Amino acid sequence: MIRVLFAGSLRLPREAMATVLSGVPGVDVVAQVPLGTDVVPSALRTRPTIALLDADLAGLDGVSAAVQLKSALPGCRVLLMTPPNRPDLLRSALAARVEGLLSKDVSISALTDAVCRVARGERVLEAHTVAEVLHMPGNPLGARDIDILRLAAAGRTPGEIAAALHLSPGTIRNILAAINRKLGARNRIEAIRIATHSGWI
Q1: Residues 59 and 112 in one domain
Q2: Tens digits of residue pLDDT in 124-153
Q3: Where in this chain does the record put each Response regulatory domain (predicted)?
Q4: 48: domain range?
Q5: b/e string for 165-190 if b means 16 or more Cβ within 10 A?
Q6: Is the model's pTM score more than 0.90?
Q7: Are residues 11 and 36 in contact, defined by beta-carbon separation less than 8 angstroms?
Q8: If DSSP codes are grouped into helix, strand and coil, which group holds residue 187?
Q9: 90 and 23, same structural domain?
């Protein structure tokens, strides 16, 4: 049985999607949440095998929610739904190591197929998504840098980031300073702005 957690800000589309997925043989929607901050607590209670996340979640965006979820529940696979014409989200979503990326304008059949494929261990990326990422400028940040800067952008302190990633606060401060140098930023706020504008977090 594929256990699905679905996170979407708008109630009607969220409930409609959950109803559709519940009608697919072998799929059980175990949770629906409206906020990005609800994803991890709900996942820890319900233990989904797949998390279907809207990239534009309120409270905490879908990419940041995916990062936190993968830290809290590594066995849960993530399928992120992104709005059309938002290439800035693509690289940060891939850096978050999500298992699938779909545009929000996909058909129901494409969505259900993607859920089943991700549950089987496949990675689902639409061809145009890959093409957009390949044409984006290079990212000087490593995966660890991205995780840390994304948590900093969500308002986490170095101590909170250290606890979330099982590192020391001193290590986090050193990495944040290195990120500033890589991006030519004067401080953390400027680094977050540069990375966000470039689609790296």
Answers
A1: yes
A2: 987 556 555 555 556 788 888 999 999 999
A3: 3-119
A4: 2-134
A5: bebeeeebeebbeebbebbebeebee
A6: no
A7: no
A8: coil
A9: yes
